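Hello again, I could really use a second opinion on something today. I've been staring at a protein lately and its backbone has me curious. Can you walk me through what the tokens say about the fold? Take your time with it, there's no hurry, and the full record follows here:
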Amino acid sequence: MKKVLRRSNDSSRNSINSAFTLRTVRYVECQTNHAASVGGYIVDGCREYMPATGTLNCAACGCHRNFHRREVETDVASDCTSASSTTT
């Protein structure tokens, strides 16, 4: 599972306010069709991508990571801080 944290600043917003986007990327079951050459549809049953050491191939089924279905979860958290102004 890969987690990415990004800070996004919108130029129309105050520089005090900022938002963080947390994206979680998971690669789940393998979608490789092993019977495509004979007109059928058979998958190998690999349920989740497990990275092999130093490559983008799955340690369980041997397929490249792109053959596994990708799930992306996005969470947005904002840090809203309002500047208070006081006059004396």
Notes: Strands lie at 2-8, 18-30, 68-79.
